[in-house]
Amino acid sequence: MLAALYNLKHIRNTRYFYFIPFLAFTLLGEFGGSHFAKYYADYVTGNTHIYLWVVVFGFIFFGYQFYEIFQSKLWKWITAVGTTLLVLAMLSYFCFLPVYIQLYFNTYVIGGFFLCCISCAYMYQQFIVSDDYETNLFHVPDFWLVMGILLFYVGNSISFALHYFLKGEPIMIWGVKIYHFFPRVLSVFLYGFITVAIFLWKKYREKSLSAS
Fold this sequence. Notes:
By secondary structure, the chain is mostly helical. 77% of the residues lie in helices and 2% in strands. It has helices at 2-6, 8-11, 19-39, 48-69, 73-96, 101-129, 141-161, 163-166, 178-211, and strands at 172-173, 176-177.
């Protein structure tokens, strides 16, 4: 979030500006989830209801970014429909079910798989379909953003898919449950790559405007 605030004048009035509320909400959710788990450990859903909203906000935000990134109407439609279904599913659990922990994890896995698929679609378009051979993708902000999303959700989806089998006798890594350990490690990659994307945005946007 500090990187976004530092580059505020460069990302204002662009879709990268929305990183600020997204990262602020995520940070608030992480603090709230940790606080709730510490002081209300016996609550029926644990702190899942807090992370559900963090995940919903993440699906909406990343879905919006992909919708703007894709040029194809088909992939825009796929992104919009998939994101909408995921968000509606999560919100229905929160509104109508007293306990939804396993449903939350299952839907997260499906959502992660969906984001991985559209991330791969973006990569396919950049590496195979695109005829722009002069652009270095390491200088493209969206490339770093998509790579961060892909790495984050691949790892998390795998570990969360095993949640049902691991919750009885959890496997620990350095004293942390495996389905808690991987999200923490992969968050470093996600937010690190987002930071790179934000810092690259100024130069890339100036280049795009001058080219047009």
